[in-house]
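Input record (one chain):
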Amino acid sequence: MLAAPAAWAADLPPLPADADEALKAAHADVQRFPQDYGAWVALARAAGDAHPDLAIAAWTEAEALSGGNIETTANQVMPRLSVGDVAGAQDAAARAAALDPTRADLKLLRAEALRHAEGKGSLYRAAIRAHGPTQEAYALDPASPEVWCGLGWSRLRLGNTVGARKAFDEAAALGGDCGGSATEAAGLVHRLYASTWASGLRYPTLTGLGVGVSGGVHAGATLADLASLGATVRGTRIATPPGAGPVRQKELWASASVHHAGAGAQAMVGRLSLSSSAFSGPPGAFGPGAQISSEVIEETATVVGGRLWGSWWASVGLEGARSVYDDGAGWQAALSASLPVLEPLTLGARAQLTAFTDAEDITEGLVATGESGQPLLSGAVSGAWHQARWGVSAEARFGPEIRPVRFDDAYVWNLSQRLVGGGGVTLSLRPKDALSLSAGYQLNLIRTPLDAPTVDIESQHTLTLGIAGQWEIRR
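The corresponding structure, as predicted from the sequence alone:
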């Protein structure tokens, strides 16, 4: 009788207590014939789905004895997924697909392993990775119902519900059953969103402002995953030094977008109204019962913008905006990109141009000089780490900006002073699928005008708490 080598004997899981006679016999055979490839394959098949740890050990040993073949490599994928070894499953699937690039089933097996990464991060990122091997499988075997199920899953997670339905219908026509994903695609009609938030603000002295509060409400709807509509209302109240009343700003934003297969376009318009008061009277007049006069200053602004985006192996966006104020007009253009680097980690970068021309230069047709009309180049880098129920994101901005528009938050920085950098961090929690909570901090660095007697940079701080909900309507 041959003795089992210590290397594999130590790694072989013990015989399960509920093992049947076939599994007991196969387990005994590999101990008697540890170099027998057939004995290890028989043990792996006897272990099956009921004992994945034993199946993994047996297929791994068989692969080593054979020098690597499709049977032993491919059959490790599903047992590894069942025990949560996502990285091992992906590695085995990649090795199997490389052994025969002409087999569609091996492409699908690799896509299956990539899809199972969803448990550690975003379904969207998992779909991006799985879509490539699925498309390769389709090119090899377009009549396979399993291929159409894989295409439907990827399309569904990438936001292309109409395309997913077509793929699932094609799979059904070929005799396939795509399970819950097909039911999800067939039943999803609309999504409704709502969120509210409150912020505490603190401005530096060079802005002439003090502490303040801001809050808003956003509501939106996605129609059949093809178009979205949204509206945002925000109000801000900021204290000013003695002798002046508080500054109040009201904002109303509306947006509409179309999107399909990971690409889309959005248009956005915003209307801002700002009011402030200046008080006057004799020295010492601001006591109880004093007679003073008040002048209310009203200002308005209109912002129109749009952006295009596409998501493939990376996400790329292009955006632009035009802003018209009582004291001038501005524009901006930006290019951004983000890339899923690791399973839960996404990194991004952004380059932006902003400019603002004073009203006097516009009226008199003057060529802009100095700060007026000068394009300012700025940039940003960002990172986001998202798990199933929580996430954290951070951004660092550098370079000068003048009255920039923030598309993601439907917000415009409505101060005449330049921004010269900043950053922020946001923590999000999702206690339920339809509910998310967030807390964030933002820092903005503001500098004095170029023609000021002294150059100074001061900081502005914002703390924000928010809550958001999402509801799905199925037919």
